[in-house]
Amino acid sequence: MASSRSSSHVGLNSSFYGSTAFIPVNGSGALADPVLRTKILLMGMRRSGKTSIQEVLFHALPPKQTFYLEMTTRVSRHTYDTVIPLEIWDCPGTATLDTLEAPLSQFSTLVFVIDIQDFYQQPISKLADSVATAYQENPGMHLEVFVHKADALSDEYKIENFRLIQQRVTDELIDISPEYEQIPIEFHLTSIYDHSLHEAFSRVLHKLTPSLPYLEDLLNVFCANSQASKAFLFDTSSRLYVATDASPVDPPTHSLCSDYLQMLNSFGPLYRSTSASVPRHQQVASSTVTSPAPSEPTSPRPVAHAIPPSAGSTHSPLPPLPEDIPSLNSSQSPTVMSPSVSTVVSPKSGTPTPSTILRMKNLFYPSASASLSPNASGAGTTVTYHLVTPRLALLAVLPTAIFETRRGLVEYNVVFFREGVQEICEVEEEARKVG
Ligand SMILES: Nc1nc2c(ncn2[C@@H]2O[C@H](COP(=O)(O)OP(=O)(O)OP(=O)(O)O)[C@@H](O)[C@H]2O)c(=O)[nH]1
């Protein structure tokens, strides 16, 4: 499971790397961002759900609270660091590509959000105009349409409206110019209330990740060597999957892994850290909390110990499962088979850096697993979680019988998988440094 470390991994292709970003400070000056960020433009009609998408994915806003979001009146830029550093521009409903006052060449993707019930002339025209302008000015730009709020309709009407919107957009583009019929646009049905949004944005992210083929290779090798039927590399905090193995993604398996990750994430705030700056997703629950045992004797390293709120016993029971996780409800209550070690590195800045990643290599990583049919004498499925970098986690699905009999081998493979992913991330970070 070794991976090459050559910089050809992530060839310096400008369409992947975009340009240097500037993060406004208090609306006055501007600080140069030290990395090249991939820029994504989020556009659409008023109230189509743009800010909700951004907030739910990247700030863990509970979907129901999007109801209280204020109207966007000017372009707001949001940075998010995952397998690649992103900069998302959330535009007001009134904005058009002509009024944007930014060259379109700096954007890698246009995500146009349209309400699934908005198939009238004005939204369709705006969508078609945006696509045509983007294509004219930056033909390499990925064009994605989120047909959003799909939850508002029954399955039958959902598909009908989805097709109708695609057809009308195509007709409108042909009206602008017959050659625009060939513009490659990808349509996604999305909703903040289910996994469709995560699935769609994951696919958007895949097109922007230069190291995707290498990550996929590692996942394929991991699956083959561990007899896993499916494996995902997830961004822990947004729950976007940044890569998966070659087998098809079926929605129930994706939902299962995503829900399990959400459950582990939701444990984080229940545990208090001795260090103030531990990223939330690294504070993973465990039924047994152990102290760090560094593999190599070195100078003291910053570590955090997960501490149950009722400090005292180190063998506290697991907290109850959140009610809103359908596939892990009481009838399928998971058994946490691995009393995972929750010892993590605590970067002082709070933002993991390449050196943090290097330091983490010498430390423990949280892991967990759950059997979906614990009473069926190994006949069920087990989902496993292993943190592999400060931001990324491997989630795999494998037969319980295999996990129970070959757990050592699975853990052994994870070590090499983690090494490979960390090397790829280091090359990516190196390639994106400014100056
Ligand atoms: N049913 C449903 N409602 C949604 C969904 N996404 C967003 N909404 C709702 O749509 C409304 C508008 O959402 P916003 O995110 O503010 O929309 P926006 O496009 O940013 O709006 P502007 O700032 O006016 O451009 C809110 O009440 C959200 O709760 C969804 O997937 N399903």
Concise synopsis of the structure shown:
The protein has helices at 14-17, 50-58, 121-137, 155-176, 196-208, 212-226, 251-267, 354-360, 400-432; strands at residues 19-24, 30-44, 76-81, 85-90, 107-115, 142-148, 185-189, 230-235, 241-244, 303-305, 335-336, 343-345, 367-371, 381-387, 392-399.
Explain what the structure shows.
- The chain has 435 residues and is α/β, with parallel strands linked by helices.
- The protein has 2 domains: 7-205, P-loop containing nucleotide triphosphate hydrolases (Rossmann fold, 3-Layer(aba) Sandwich); 212-432, Beta-Lactamase, CATH 3.30.450.190.
- Helix content is 31%, strand content 21%.
- The protein contains 9 helices and 15 strands.
- The chain has helices at 14-17, 50-58, 121-137, 155-176, 196-208, 212-226, 251-267, 354-360, 400-432, and strands at residues 19-24, 30-44, 76-81, 85-90, 107-115, 142-148, 185-189, 230-235, 241-244, 303-305, 335-336, 343-345, 367-371, 381-387, 392-399.
- Strands 1, 2, 3, 4, 5, 6 and 7 form a 7-stranded mixed β-sheet that branches. Strands 9-8-15-14-13-11 form a 6-stranded antiparallel β-sheet.
- Helix 3 (121-137) packs across helix 4 (155-176).
- The longest helix has 33 residues, at 400-432.
- The site of guanosine-5'-triphosphate (GTP) has 22 residues, from helix 2.
